[in-house]
Every structure is written in C-alpha cells, then in structure tokens.
Amino acid sequence: MKTFPKDNTFSYKQFLYRCAIFVVTVSIIVYFMPKEGKFNYQFELDKPWKYGLLQASFDFPIYKDDEQVKTEQDSILKFYAPYYHLNIETGQKMIEKLKKDYNDKSLIIKDYSNYRTHIERNLRKIYETGVISQTDLEQINDDGVSTIQAITQNTAVQRSVSEIYTIKEAYEKLINADTVQFNKALLQQCNLNDYIIPNLTYDSEKSMTAKQELLTNIPWATGYVMNGQKIIDRGEIIDRKKFDILRSMQKEWNSRSETVAEKRLTLFGQILFVSIMVALFMVYLEIFRRDFYQVKGKVYLLFSIITVFPVIAFLMVEHAFLSVYIVPFAMIPMLIKIFLDSRTAFMAHIITILITSIALRTPHEFILLQAVAGMAAIYSLRELSQRSQLLNSAFIVTVTYSLLYLALDLVHVSEIAQLSTYVYMNFVINGLLLLFTYPLLFILEKTFGFTSNVTLVELSNINTKLMREMSETAPGTFQHSLQLANLTAAAANRIGANSQLVRTGAMYHDIGKMLNPAFFTENQSGVNPHDQLNYKQSAQIVISHITDGLKLADKHNLPTVIKEFISTHHGNGLTKYFYISYQNEHPDEEVDKTAFQYPGPNPFTKEQAILMMADSVEAASRSLPEYTEESISALVEKIIDSQVQEGYFKECPITFKDIAVVKSVFKEKLKTMYHTRISYPELKK
C-alpha cells in the first residue's frame, strides 16, 4: 500500500494555474464590490432603532432641518439688495437724440419749443433715477426684493424698487407732468417711447456675492458629532435629537465626495482585503486538501461559490434591494459538504462571509449570525439522500438564525416592545431559499462533474431501467450485485468510507455481463458454453465484461465514479482459472499474461478497494464445500492477503488497520448469509 509522501516538486504550470484562479477570483469580487459608501439605514421619528450599535465614522455637523433653514433664509434675504449698473450716458444719448429729431424741420411740431426744456429735464431725472426692463423687474418681484444697489461709476446707492421706473412708468411720468397737462395731446404726438430705454443692468457676480455673504451668516448646524461617538444602539427610540443626528449623518454621508487619491486608496484596500481572504483559503487547500487541485471540477466549484455569493450580496447593497439576510449563505457549507467534506465547507463559508461583510454597515452581527447558521447547516446535514433531510436542515438553520438574533436583541433592548420583528421574515425567506439546494445539486453535478448522494440513491434503486434489465437477463449477476452492495456498505461504514457510493458501485460493477450472461457461472443452469472454447477465448469473453460494462455505462449516462468501479473491481488482475488451466496444459510454453489480464486500473480509492475485496470473497464463498466459521474465516484471510501481496492496493489510500476491519466485517456478514438452519421435526402419529 502507498504511504503517500508529499509531492514537493515545483511546477510552473501548477503555479500559473493557481495564480490565474487567484487573480480571476479577486478581480470579479472587487469589480462588483461597492466603491462608494452609502447610508443604507432606514429610520423614522419616534420609532425604535432596528439595527445594531451605530457610531460616527467621521466628524460631521448636526444640520438644521430644511424648513427651519428656509425660514431663516427668507428672513435674512429681506435685507438682500441686488446690484445694478446705472448708465447715465444712456439718458444723455436719448436726450441728444430727442433734440436732433425735433430740430429737424420735417419733424417740427407747433409750440414744441415751449416745452422742450421741461421734457428734457424730466427725462434726465428719470434716467438719473433709473429705468429697468420689465423682465428684471419681474425677477426682483419674484425674489421679494424691496431695494437695489444702483452703481454709478464706483459708488453704489441703495434705492427702493418703488422709486425706479419701467419704460411704461417713465412714459406716463413725462405725459402726466402737472405743468403740461393742458398739452398732453401735443406730447403724445412726440413719440416719447422712442427715447425711453432701460439703463439699469443687472450685475450677477456682485449680486450673488452679496447674497452668499448674507447666507453665510446663517448657522447651518446646531451641534457637532465627533468620529467614534455613539449615535444610537439597537432598540433605542429615535427622538427629535437623534433623528436630526441621523438625518445629518445621512446627508453628510451622501454628499461626501472622494478625491481621486481617496478612491485609489479605497480600491487598493478592497483588493488587499479580498486578496488576503482568497490567499488564506488557497493556503488551506495547499496544506490540507492539495489533492483538490488535481481535480478541476472541485477547484472551480469552490471558487465559484466563494465568488457568486458575495457578488449577489454586493449587488443587493449597491441597489438597496431588500435585506442581505435573505441570501441563503448557509447553502455554501451544505453544497460543499455534499460534494466534498465538512472542514472545507466550513472554511469556504467563513471566507465567503468575511469577504461579504466588508460591504455591510453591521459586519460583526452579520459574521456572527452567518457563522453560527453555517455550523448548524453542517451539523444538520451529514449526508443528503432524501428531500426530507434538506427540509430539516432548512428548518434548523432558520431557527438558529432567529434564536441567535433574538439573543442579540434581548442584550440591547430595555423592554420587550423594542424587539425587532420584521427581521424574522427575512430568516423565513432565507430558509425557503435553502430548499433550492436540491434542484441546484443537479445543475452543479452537470457543470462540475460531481455525483451527489442523492444521485447515488436514485441509481441504486433496483427499479431503474438498467437494474430491471439485469434482473431479467442476468439474474445470478443481479443477486451477486445485491449481496455485494450489502457487504461493501457494511464494511465502508466501519472504516469511514462512503457507504452509499460503494453500494451503488457494487450494483453496477458487473453490468457488462448482461451482454453474455451465460458465460458466467452465476447465470448458468447446467450448460457451460466455455466447454466449446479454448482458454484464451474464454478469458477474453470474461475480460470483455469490463469494456462492455463501460460501454453500457456511457450509453446510460452513468457518472464517472460508477464507471471507475466497473474498471477497477478486477484491477490489473488475471482470470486465474483460465490462466492456470492454460499453463497446466502448456507447461513448457512461456505464457503471455496479457491475454488473461484485465485492463485495470487497480483501485485508487478506499471504496474501490472494498469492492475488489468483496467481489472476490463473495464469489469464492459460493464454492465452499461447507460453511463453517473456520472455512469462511480462512477464505477471507486467504483471498484478501493474496490481493495485498500482489500489490493491488499500492495506489490506494487504505491502511492495514482498515483492511483488518474489512476482513472482520466480511466474516461476520458471510456467517450470517450462510448460517445453517435448524431441521424442523416431523409430527409422529
């Protein structure tokens, strides 16, 4: 038997393969990881805080609410006066234009000269006060402004909005002057509208500066929260003060903009964290499960699971979709335990929840709940062979979630009324989603090339098409397979091997005999067709049940692990009856063993070794002249010891202790199978 020394030979191909797995896993996880922090808490005034302890992660002010700020802004903006440039030259140009137009002989109006001085004086006063456009006046009214700052050269003069003129008001001022009321009709003929245009121009820069100076005088905050300061804990009622603090934290959190340097640091931190987690898992595999790297399906399954579940959680957090507690993380250890082993399942589960926790606001609570739920899943699902087992596990996981969360709630609340209730619905949904593990097994089996216990149980059903055909065409082989299934399963249970796997393998190991059933003694009824053949021909027909069995297995899509039982149950052994008989007939000839040798290979798992031993022992036991404890024990010892000596188990991880246990199981079972029944007495008359 092999001692299995560690292979320390460095391989560049293996190194690059593992590096590729590492880089792809880290890249996918980091790509979907939320890059910008979001305030994902929901809270209401006078309601209890439903999350864990919340502490400030940065300094921030306690902002006033929008209504209070709006009131204070409206109050101080009453003193706001926008800036307008007053252009005196505009008025002078219009007066000169008026003089020129009405000095033209073609435009002379009778008696106009009597009022020219009066019109020019009033027009000059209007332009000195200021004429504003209708659009600017509407904007002033909308802003609720009562005064403006009129800038002339470098001097600003505050003027009431009611003092300045629009074009219409300026025109009416000229027409309705008291000194010219009796000549109003005459002045209307002068087209004074042509000489009234706005000379107040809005200065947006100075106006905005003035407004900002006023607004900066308003205190936007009523207090300050320091980094690390406690804000609220689970179950505490959100009063007005806490509500303002939470609202301020949310506002500050959402408005914080990271610089390019900060974003790079965040990305580097995420890459470093995920890299450490993935590297730790790969170190675990290197130390304890190096053989997994030799089977690509196992590696791809593990790293796919470690990648997919965090990505789902990250997308939910990024888009604020439902609660991350509905994601069935307990499915991780369940799937890996079903296909691989419990220790790897627990390690993969811990690594996955640690990676996921970096994107959550309450990582400690998440890690605690998921770690305990994962252990409950592992303990409750020792092996999956029936749907009811999965239902029990889902129920246990849901109860574990609920009880642990209740315990945390009771620690932090001061009265029963403060307990959270909505979270338990998430746990129920989580438990229901765990039931999808059953259909998911089929997808994973086809994708990664695994065979679950569920599939093995289904295959070992004697009502399957192939088993029914065997029972009809090769009934002796069928009975032999059933005996072997019970014998191997009992031995596997005793040495810690997979009993369901070896049971199913035993059911199918001889299916190749279905094509030529009469050539095998267990199916014969007095006529032996080998009598018509030479020893080499007979040996080839017997050996062909291996290749025929593999062809049938391919035809019926049997899993690879079952095909391995077909090819290894005789290993590279000889058809000894025909080989020895041929050698006896040709004592002087050097016999070519290959004509009498099975194609192999030799067993390379414990289960295959058990089947090989059981197959030889059960077949040989049929030829015993009598079934006594001594004869059965001697037969078992002889056959298995010869197999060990011939080296059939050199490549198999089975120990001498395991073989001794298997021997004792076989002896016990064979004694039970061939026990002598008592003779019933006849009734004397």
Question: Which tags fit this structure?
Answer:
685 residues, two-stranded antiparallel ribbon, 4-stranded mixed beta sheet, single chain, mainly alpha
How would you explain this protein's 3D organization?
It is built from 27 helices and eight strands. The longest helix is centred in the middle third of the chain and has 29 residues. It has 685 residues and is mainly alpha-helical. It has a four-stranded mixed β-sheet. Strands 1-8 form a two-stranded antiparallel sheet. It has a two-stranded antiparallel sheet with strand order 2-7. A hairpin with a 2-residue loop joins strand 4 and strand 5. The two termini are 65 Å apart. The N terminus is likely disordered. The chain is 58% helix and 5% strand. The chain is elongated and about 160 Å long. Helix 22 runs antiparallel to helix 23.
Uncertain spans, ≥5 residues at pLDDT below 50?
A: 1-6, 105-110, 178-182
Compute the number of strand runs: 8
Radius of gyration (CA) equals 47 Å
Q: Tell me what portion of residues adopts beta-strand conformation.
A: under 5%
- Report helical residue fraction: 55-70%
Mean pLDDT: 84
